[in-house]
Amino acid sequence: MRLTFKKYLLYSFFSIILCSLVLSIDKSSPSFVYAEEISFFRASPRLARTHTTFTLPNVISTYIFEIEIPQNAINSLQKIVINQQTNMETIDFFPDQTKAFIINNNQQKINVKAINNFSDNKNELIIELEPSIPSGNTLKLEVKARNPLYGGIYQFGVTAYPQGNNPRSLYLGIARFHFDQPGGRF
């Protein structure tokens, strides 16, 4: 195949246009993220223990979630999202009464900012930890809620977010609570 001068010019022109388009991509645009800017856990935190203080129907109870953050997780734990799975009733959380502690030799209280999210048919409790919990610690969350009027098994998905500008969530698993039926256990 012989390359004529016209074909050579056309080929050069398209090469220059293509190179300029590639080089003109704005790397600061929000749709483009460098791998170094992504925050994630190198080792997974673990939902170690969950329980509730009362199983009676329609009473205010404390739901307790303990999360272990391994030493090799590297990043600190910044946020927890507790999402009620679909059930007969929607659990009423009291976000202003949510408490957090680091439990090692003593319980060190941590400030939290908790809000309910009811969008898209979800019942989520979003808990921001201030300051974030460093790796190698165990976090204890105490969430006040009203138990359902109709008992049964209620499940809550627990998701953890590391500290950082572009955190990648990590689903830790399901917390299962069994509540009594009105009038006693059946």
TrEMBL record:
The lineage of its organism: Bacteria, Bacillati, Cyanobacteriota, Cyanophyceae, Oscillatoriophycideae. This is DUF2808 domain-containing protein. Pfam families: DUF2808. It comes from the Bacteria.
